[in-house]
Amino acid sequence: MNSITERRMNSERQWGNEGKLGFFPTNKSIVDMEMNLIDFSELQGSDVTLNIADLSGGEGEQLNWMYQYLQNNNIKAEAYYNELAEERFNKGMSNYPYFNGVNTDIFELRVANKSNRNLNKKVFSIIRDNPPYIWLNKGDRNVRAEYEFFIKNSLLDINGGIHIFELPIHQLLGINNLISIINYRYEMEIFKFPKGEFEKFKQVVVICKKRTVAQRDNAKIGEIKFNLENNNIPYLDEVQGPVFKVNYNDFKKTPPINLFRNGRVTDNTLANGLNQVLDELLSADKKDSEVVSIERGKPLIELMPGHISQILASGGYNGLMGNLLIKGGSNKVIQVIKETEDDKEITTEVEVLKPYLELTNSKGDILYRNF
Question: Can you give the pTM of this predicted structure?
Fold first, then answer.
């Protein structure tokens, strides 16, 4: 990941290379304005505890202000906080010890029920999403962090949940398909930061409510793009009343959760672990294969359910292991052997079993393939 610089963007920086780096730390008055756009009346004084999150949380101030806003409106909440930079994370946890915090790359973050550790996706009632404004390396491509952070966060909020997405206006317009992707998953409204700040920093907020059923609204997308291009977006401090209302029945479903860092599996670990399976396929009596462990210390081979090596040898396997899709088996192929005897070439065809494996992650990236 590129280095992240904390800075306030001026108008000159916004349109140059510097405008594509760093992030914008939002102040308390704007956080309160954003929260005022949501009608929480069904939750006030209720038995529901909201799961609120900021998974690129800086020093945690904005998440704390959001928590305070809910407390002041008689709404119970648990705050979940992640920050990659260790110094900022430590400061956030020191200042706000009630946070449920983890210090990791957002793309290595996992959430699970406190009761049974089952992995979950739709667990957060409200997500704050103010990503770093940087380029990220994804495979052989450079991608914008704003896009990738939005996608990651959008997998984690409940149907009917709120997603507060802050970014520079030129990135909202300029990142290919970003508006369409937001609209597909959410009802959405866009507001400029108050005039004085917007003129300096070109910042907007997208207030989103998660759709129960994803759908593409081409008319709305066209309207949004037209309004952005023609400076027809209202300022936050000029909005009268809420734009979305949250429902008790949607929010009562959020369980207490844990945040934790996923065990990182490197390319080397994957290659060595899978090579071991192949070795076992080809030679059952081979005992000298190296067992390579992931960071939690559990051998990769032990993670494979149902003695996959035996299943592969018997014909084929196609199943899930966590968030990995494993496809494999043995194909019958004709091996041609050419030999020379007494200056005469002899060709022999032999039917053999050739094992194959393919490992694909939840994003569709092929991590390993041997065919």
Answer: 0.67
